[in-house]
Amino acid sequence: MKSNSKRPITILIADDDPEDRMLAAEALKESRLANDIRFVEDGEELLDYLMLRGRFSNPDDAPRPGVILLDLNMPRKDGREALREIKETPDLRRIPIIVLTTSKAEIDIYRTYDLGVNSFIVKPVTFDSLVEVMQILRKYWFEIVEIAAD
């Protein structure tokens, strides 16, 4: 779905670090991305959000995301486990998932692509670099790519 469509795309960010969540939101704002941004703090919350369970049971409070930005290293259920479950669930597997993590481990890169991730990005160390990454993501995912609408 392109950015000129009638339905805005919700971005769901799964990251346990409050500072990283704040920086990601600021970087998205700085990159002029006006989409609805939602946050969850771990893989359990991510799956609850996507499956409309618990505090996310009201669909108005948990709109289906068009894209998920996923950290790998989170408590309770990490991003790898959540990714596997999402890609094994027919109703969820088409949601594009972009890993945005501090991990540079080759095993994480290979494993997440094997599990069906769409992109793997190592978190930039500076805010300006993060803004640049978000600008590229905005251009690619919201202006170029067609996202399957469910």
From TrEMBL:
It comes from the Bacteria. Pfam families: Response_reg. Keywords: Phosphoprotein. Residues 10-138 form the Response regulatory domain. This is Response regulator. The keyword Phosphoprotein applies. The keyword Phosphoprotein applies. The modification 4-aspartylphosphate is found at D71. InterPro entries: CheY-like_superfamily (IPR011006), Sig_transdc_resp-reg_receiver (IPR001789), TCS_response_regulator (IPR052893). PANTHER family: RESPONSE REGULATOR RCP1, RESPONSE REGULATOR RCP1-RELATED. PROSITE patterns: RESPONSE_REGULATORY. SMART domains: REC.
